[in-house]
Amino acid sequence: MVHGSGRTYLAIPGPSVVPDRVLNAMHRASPNIYEGEIFDIAYSVVADLKRVAMTDQHVAIYIANGHGAWEAAISNMFSRGDKALVGATGRFGHGWAEAVQQMGVEVEMIDFGKAAPVDPNRIAEALAADKAHRIRAVLVTHVDTASSARSDIAAIRAAIDATGHPALLTVDAIATLGCDEMRMDEWGVDVLVGACQKGLMLPPGLGFVWFSDRALEVSQRAGLSTPYWDWRPRGLAEEFYQLFGGTAPTAHLFGLRESLTMILDEEGLPRVWDRHEMLAGAVWAAFDAWSAGANAIGLNMSNPRYRGRSVTAARIGNGGAIALRKWLESEAGVTLGIGLGMAMPDEPAYGDFLRVAHMGHVNAHMLLGVLATMEAGMQALDIPHGAGAIEAAAAAIAAG
Predict the structure, then answer these.
(1) Residue 62 pairs with which residues in a beta bridge?
(2) Is the pTM value of this prediction over 0.90?
(3) Most exposed: 7, 241, 255, 342, by fewest CB within 10 Å?
């Protein structure tokens, strides 16, 4: 039976579900960009972006996706010939490192594999060995959207401090903000990278870089900085146009104003974190049940402490993941995320991985619908799986 009516559901880890009220806020004519309402909205958005990152420092807004935000951070920290220390916990850690290298910066990579967080001790060892202090910054991903590995940022900061090394701590929080707990100032993050299309609940189009006074000082010597990517005019804007390097992204600002109000002033950031904790727990409970007696099914991250709360990477072996994804999309109107970077397309295991997103504008009935439809697909495809998954997910949600 092919689905023929009702809404389709996108359960991929970005772009996430955009609330109707955000879409409605964006669906309006362009305003006067030289005075009036758009000024008030933009300055309120800047203030609330600091609230969502839990910082009193600076933020720069770019008309870009997350890759653009990566490039903005790189260009403001480095000169050609500098060195970066990158801790990779999945495909996006490697992607960030590749961007650094392509911009002429030397990379020392510590690859923690596809199913482990950053080990702060190994970061400390690498910095301690850098006697000449060539490493300008440590780059880590808080939650890698491919592996769903979540690293302990506060512990990494403590490890850096223990060495006495002056390197900046730079964190990719693209899959974190508005989902997982993130405390930029309290955890000692110097540069934080984000984007609007995941927990912040907008269509793709805006990238963000938050930066500390210390990072601002370092940027004075950054030879890669260019007029558009320079974070100083944006983060220290004296004129309205400087906030965006030119024309304001008006529709996105209208939508972002609405989504930040929903997150910060209506639900409240602690409750947002709690909701994502609950939803993630329901997904994990379902997979634990499915995996009972079915060795081909399992979560990518074995330790719940190191799992992101916005997305869950999982394995259904023997090509079960790709078969299930295809069935869900064609027969039930549900789209799951591909197993990005877990295996190459020409490898037999390529079809064994998928991702279930539970980020942003998601509640219990939306998630339970996805999980129940996944179980229906397993039954339709004769994928061996344990019983009781939906009951376990429901119990996790009931426990709240």
Answers:
(1) 207
(2) yes
(3) 7
pLDDT above 80 (res 28): yes
CB 340 within 8 A of CB 14: no
Span between the terminal Cα atoms of the chain, in Å = 35
Going from the C-alpha of 45 to that of each of 74, 166, 176, 260, the distances in angstroms are 24, 32, 18, 8
Return the structure tokens found at 30: 């362009």
Q: Is 245 left (phi over 0), alpha (psi -120 to 50) or beta?
A: left
Per the structure, the complete domain to which residue 131 belongs is given by 31-265
| pLDDT tens, position by position, 242-281 | 999 999 999 999 999 999 999 999 999 999 999 999 999 9
Instruction: Answer yes or no: do 248 and 275 share one domain.
Output: no
Contact between 26 and 251 (Cβ < 8 Å): yes
**Neighbouring residues of 207: CB distance < 8 A, sequence distance ≥ 6:** 61, 62, 63, 64, 65, 66, 68, 69, 72, 193, 194, 195, 196
Query: What CATH code is carried by the domain that includes residue 318?
Result: 3.90.1150.10
308 with 150: CB under 8 angstroms?
Answer: yes
Position 294 confidence tier, pLDDT thresholds 50, 70, 90: confident
**Residues 27-52 as b or e (16 or more Cβ within 10 Å = b):** eeeebebeeeebbebbeebbebbbeb
Do both 299 and 245 map to the same domain?
A: no
State the DSSP string of 373-390. Answer: HHHHHHHHTT----S-HH
Burial class from Cβ neighbours inside 10 Å (0-12, 13-18, 19+) for residue 117 reads buried
